[in-house]
Design a protein that fits this description.
The chain is built from 14 helices and 15 strands. It is an alpha/beta fold and 383 residues long. Helix 7 crosses helix 12.
């Protein structure tokens, strides 16, 4: 098949959507399909070493500098017809998603879309004068879904949410985003204990993600402060960057924890995987995750998880043998108690670690996910 994937997000911007697109592209190409990406151009200085990627002019989003707003104006549009696309797959309802919808109608190509993001929780990035209401955002999501020939939801929880917005249940298929488990079997090259002078007997807590308010990293810092009162041989590494970084660094200074809480900044994917494998525990308190790829990645590395069980994360950790501890609500004492319980109970820790690896391998490998997506494509093309 010739597959066109349209997205307003892709590398070098680091997030779950970028990772998912790259994994799908690589796996589909392994199976002999031709995958063409249509994404924003991030910088004149950034050169891609990747075939079949069409870049569109883009401007920085004024209120979130990492984000780009693609301008669907490019001579590459005239090349699209020659690609003989069999299917179009958009990753969001914005400028590239609008272009995907337009092309699907003009060229009479079936159009699939994946609902990656809980846009309702990101309205705060817009100033009040142009900020849509919650109902307007929900209506926008519903209308986008109805224009698609099929909607892919990463979890049942998200599917139920879309149905509550008015999207027909039969219009949505649940396919979790997969993980390339083989990448977690490679030898470690980035030694984080050496990099940050962490002693052999010190435990490492890890967070990976964008430093935005919806990720609740300030809550995790408060939890770490509680843990530190009882356990001194412990470090908290925060990988990622974003608008909240300065505020978070100030909280760390107020707690006098600069030696124990490390801001590692954004890191290449290879280094992030190495960090997962060396951490003792992954902690996460975001309430906006459609799936929580970082949860799956941590478990693929055999690192147990303590996380807030909301939205997509609930669908992962609600399983008995998932390899993680789910906290029902944002409660600092509950989080601190469970983190310490796992770290101090070697038998429990080893059980969670083993379960985590098996859970991801059996349920969330990229091979399984891609086969399910391709089945959606084939069913639409046979109609």
């Amino acid at each position: 098949m010739n597959i066109g994937i349209f997205s307003d997000v892709y590398f070098p911007q680091k997030n779950g959507v970028s990772t998912a697109i790259k994994l799908y592209k690589e796996e589909m190409e392994k199976l002999g399909h031709n995958v063409f990406l249509f994404v924003p151009k991030y910088s004149k200085n950034y050169k891609r070493n990747e075939k079949n990627v069409f870049e569109f002019p883009a401007i920085k989003f004024l209120f979130e500098k990492e984000q780009r707003i693609a301008l669907p104006i490019s001579t590459d549009i005239f090349k699209i017809k020659k690609l003989n696309l069999d299917i179009i797959h958009s990753q969001d309802p914005f400028s590239m998603g609008i272009l995907a919808e337009f092309l699907s109608r003009i060229l009479k190509i079936k159009h699939v879309g994946t609902h990656h993001t809980m846009y309702e929780y990101y309205r705060n990035y817009l100033p009040l004068i142009i900020r849509p209401t919650l109902k307007q955002t929900q209506k926008m999501i519903k209308n986008w879904c109805l224009k698609l020939d099929k909607v892919i939801s990463p979890t049942n929880n998200i599917k139920n949410l879309l149905v509550s917005y008015g999207v027909p249940e039969e219009h949505v298929v649940v396919i979790p985003t997969g993980i390339d488990v083989n990448k977690f079997n490679k030898p470690i090259e980035w030694n984080i204990k050496e990099e940050y002078n962490i002693k052999p007997n010190e435990k490492i807590l890890l967070f990976v993600g964008r430093l935005g308010p919806e990720k609740n990293v300030d809550f995790l810092i408060n939890v770490f402060h509680k843990i530190f009162q009882e356990e001194k041989n412990i470090k908290f590494i925060i990988i990622g960057d974003g608008t909240e970084r300065h505020k978070l660094e100030e909280i760390v200074i107020e707690y006098s924890l600069q030696k124990n809480i490390i801001f590692a900044g954004a890191q290449p994917r290879e280094k992030v995987i190495d960090a997962y494998k060396q951490a003792d525990l992954f902690i996460f308190a975001s309430y906006t995750e459609t799936q929580g790829l970082v949860i799956l990645e941590s478990m693929a590395a055999g690192t147990p998880v303590v996380a807030l069980g909301k939205m997509g994360v609930y669908d992962l950790l609600n399983h008995e043998n998932a390899g993680g501890i789910m906290i029902r609500e944002l409660n600092e004492n509950d989080f601190a108690h469970e983190i310490l319980r796992v770290l101090k109970n070697e038998e429990l820790y080893n059980k969670l670690s083993k379960n985590a690896i098996n859970f991801v391998k059996e349920n969330y490998s990229i091979e399984i996910s891609v086969q399910k997506v391709l089945e959606v494509y084939k069913n639409l093309l046979n109609k």
